[in-house]
Amino acid sequence: MIQTFRRHVAGLFAALSLAAAGTASAAPVLGAQLYWQGGDVTIEVQATSAGFTSELRLFNPNATSTFIAYNAPNGNPVGTTVTLNTAWLDTLYNVGDELKFGIYVTNTGNTFYLGSAARNADGVIHGTIDNTARAGWLRVGFEDLYGGGDRDYDDNVFDFRGSVRTTAQVSEPAALALVGLALVGAGFARRRGQRA
């Protein structure tokens, strides 16, 4: 009995190690989202190939939106940084809440959001997140044309760092391995209880 339990635990730890190693990077991820982790979030404007001027906005849960920056080269220069501080974010968000970013295209009046295609009027994914483009940053790229344009996601590019995570960094295999380990432990405890 103890030997069987040890084999199961060893197998689950091996699976957990492999799962964790397999989630070190994922790039780029279409339809990914950003989640607040409880501290400051810094956003830096990057070079783009956009013909239109767009505003990066944070769409808040109270039905307001917050202007962050214009895309380069049509608005803010490359390297412009904006920091969303903890005290301000904490008035609107809880740790783990999605930070719903999107772009408002001033030339066309269209708004496109990070996340699933269902969020956008044209039913197309307009944002991507790359966690390997720049060490320690998340690179967020948008398409600014209705219908998705050329889908290279470089019309609006912003790098994020600080207290923010993306769905691309969530390790589903590792989470499943932990659940499996808990189930093995529960089964072992149940068997011990039946013998007593």
TrEMBL record:
Residues 1-26 form the signal peptide. It comes from the Bacteria. InterPro entries: DUF4114 (IPR025193), Ice-binding_C (IPR013424). Keywords: Membrane, Signal, Transmembrane, Transmembrane helix. The keyword Signal applies. It holds the Pfam family PEP-CTERM. The keyword Coiled coil does not apply. Residues 169-191 form the Ice-binding protein C-terminal domain. The chain crosses the membrane at residues 173-189. Residues 107-161 form the DUF4114 domain. This is PEP-CTERM sorting domain-containing protein. It comes from Inhella crocodyli. The lineage of its organism: Bacteria, Pseudomonadati, Pseudomonadota, Betaproteobacteria, Burkholderiales.
